[in-house]
Amino acid sequence: MPEGSKMKKPDVKVVLLGDMNVGKTSLLHRYTERKFKDTVSTVGGAFFLKQWGPYNISIWDTAGREQFHGLGSMYCRGASAVILTYDVTNWQSLAELEERFLSLTDTANQDCIYAIVGNKADLTDPKAQLSHDSIGVSEDQTQCEEEMTEPQILSACPTPPASPESLSGLILHKQVAHEDAVAFYGRILRYKGLEDKSSLPPEKMCFETSAKTGYNVDALFETLFDLVLPSILRKRNENQESPTVDLEVCRGAGGRRARSTCC
Amino acid sequence: MEAGTQEMPAFMTNRDEDVTSDSWRQHRKHVFVLSEAGKPIYSRYGSEEALSSTMGVMMALVSFVQSGDNIIRSVYSELHTVVFLQKGPLVLVCVSNSRQSEEQLRGELLYVYYQIISMLTQASISRIFEHKKNYDLRRLLAGSEKILDGLLNLVDSDPSFLLTAIHCLPLASSLRDSLSQILQKAITPNLVFSILVAKNQLLTIVQEKTVIEDARLEPADVHLLLNLIGASSAFQAGEIWTPICLPLFNPDCYFYAYISYLDPPECTVCLLLLSTDKEAFYAVADCKRKIEEAMVAQNALSLIAKAHSYSVSQVGVSDLRHFMYKPFDVPDTYRQLTQFTSPEMEAPYSSEEEKMRLLDLYRYMHSRIHSSTRPLKLIYHVAERETLLAWVTSKFELYTCFSPLVTKACAITAITKLLRWIKKEEERLFIRYPPKYSTTPNPSKSSRGGKSDQQDSTENGFLTLL
Ligand SMILES: Nc1nc2c(ncn2[C@@H]2O[C@H](COP(=O)(O)OP(=O)(O)OP(=O)(O)O)[C@@H](O)[C@H]2O)c(=O)[nH]1
Ligand SMILES: [Mg+2]
């Protein structure tokens, strides 16, 4: 069989998890196609191969619908990074991450990296309403962290303040504060038994994004890719050291074992 | 329909319609799904919450009639036909002013039921409601409304559903054969169906040998698959892996469907691979790579791009405006999919309203032909702006539409010519012999080790189907 017909072997796997309608597909679409367009609720999961420099990163965009819950741990198997996504205007979407999605990550790698992402920030935060189409987004991220207090003021308002002329959108009540996400991140580390280790600090791993305007979206993906780089390199090294181990074989064996234990 | 609404804010959908408005009441066809306990599950227009009292009334009606051991089937008023269908713990209701027959409307409700089954399986729905009569099924179906909306739009606009037959794209038989061969060569254990679709029409379908010996793929299952593809096409660059149940094949088990477009960014040619193994994504994705390569090598994509539906003028019969022909004479040993062929709808049927009007005339003819009380073999119907002739024999079912002034004798002559033309073109119009493959290694060659291991897993795959 010609080698070329095999899939470019992904170096690493990243999975998007979160309740339906939080904007997982929109985030990925914004990152890969630089656009925000109408989506349809995802069925099952969608696999994307993203070329990142010399590396092939596979990204699974999963369905948030409860109907597909049973598949979640399959999509997460062997993941190096999981993006746990919620909607900043919907408290329940954060609660669902803890109740429904966290346990799916049990099949992820031991050293898997977790990012908590509050999407739809454009609805609550005037700063995220500006268009962030191109590069330079990472600058905005630092700005955002400096001005972390602003969203708090908004969330304290029982009714949204009248939106300034310059802003197109409507300001909605922010239901999830950044602190809530940070606290959740702490609980994830505890759940994974990672809290003593030199784990990644929550300031770095809790994002607020807008797929609609592009706010913080590149920063999210690029940060994650940078962080999984060591695990890519390690994997490439391992493959070189033991040339007899074929990825396909590992996969096949893993699949079969998993089946016999779960059925 | 979707295209026109793109500029609309996302929250302005069918669900947000004011259910007390006149426009809501005037929809051609409402469809509601509720649980036996009367909990709303789906409504085509307006949110289920807003309608829960309406659905409550329907449920009361159903249970009132049930209590008399008399299952309610339909209610007629001057303007509307209300049809009920109870399937297990689900009650489906259609309220229509489309003047379709009760049987046709019930057939459409059955499609809605099947689409729900395709997402959840019959077994799991029964299990859920046995466990909790009051369960809110919207929890599991949330997000699927668009799939059901899309299905109902297709049911209204695509005669495939009325005829329960597949429309395949006309293609030189040599090209269709080479596409089938490409699919036949790209296989992996537990792969059972390989399907190639272009412009929402079937190009070819290749099936696992042992599977089709037990059961055949029904047109309705293919319709559900095509609708699923249509509904998941929003994000076309990725490769989708999702469980799907084919209710007529087996209502209680899932297949795993791999869906990917072969021609991004146009995304008109879609590959669908069905496996029985949940974990087979990477192996199945490799089949796609092989198929992609072979298609490039044979320049197949640009050949497919040139294929299109035909014009009725190619038949060369004056006065014939449109037709639908569904043959029954396919050799049964091939367990062939029921198909039909039909030209493009051209002037005077190019506007949406006129298309719908012609389809309604066909629906009327169909209901007369298939009437449960007085079925007919031949109908000659002179309508206001056209003349229609429908004819059913043991070999085919045919619906034709002529210009209004055609005489009966002329129409009969025209049909003879049409049948001759179809016979001549049939290799191009239909998939004649669906090819098969076997993913089970040849037992005589297999020794111990890897091969027999593979065979085991194949068998396991089939077992889960039973
Ligand atoms: N205002 C705003 N709306 C957004 C944003 N991201 C997504 N949306 C909207 O939210 C809805 C859901 O977006 P999707 O990306 O389909 O959500 P998802 O998480 O992929 O949902 P599932 O596939 O069902 O799990 C769509 O109507 C989007 O237009 C955002 O950043 N801001
Ligand atoms: Mg999605």
Automatic annotation (TrEMBL), chain A:
SMART domains: RAB, RAS, RHO. The keyword Membrane applies. InterPro entries: P-loop_NTPase, Rab20, Small_GTP-bd, Small_GTPase. GO terms for cellular component: Golgi apparatus; phagocytic vesicle membrane. Pfam families: Ras. Keywords: Cytoplasmic vesicle, Golgi apparatus, GTP-binding, Hydrolase, Lipoprotein, Magnesium, Membrane, Metal-binding, Nucleotide-binding, Prenylation, Protein transport, Transport. It catalyses: GTP + H2O = GDP + phosphate + H(+). CDD domains: Rab20 (cd04126). This is Ras-related protein Rab-20.
Automatic annotation (TrEMBL), chain B:
Residues 434-466 are annotated as: Disordered. Residues 29-151 form the FUZ/MON1/HPS1 first Longin domain. Pfam families: Fuz_longin_1 (PF19036), Fuz_longin_2 (PF19037), Fuz_longin_3 (PF19038). Residues 320-426 form the FUZ/MON1/HPS1 third Longin domain. InterPro entries: FUZ/MON1/HPS1_longin_1, FUZ/MON1/HPS1_longin_2, FUZ/MON1/HPS1_longin_3, Mon1. Residues 437-449, 455-466 have a biased composition (Polar residues). GO terms for biological process: protein targeting to vacuole; vesicle-mediated transport. One of its GO terms (cellular component) is Mon1-Ccz1 complex. Residues 190-291 form the FUZ/MON1/HPS1 second Longin domain. PANTHER family: SAND PROTEIN-RELATED (PTHR13027), VACUOLAR FUSION PROTEIN MON1 HOMOLOG B (PTHR13027:SF13). Plays an important role in membrane trafficking through the secretory apparatus. Belongs to the MON1/SAND family. This is Vacuolar fusion protein MON1 homolog.
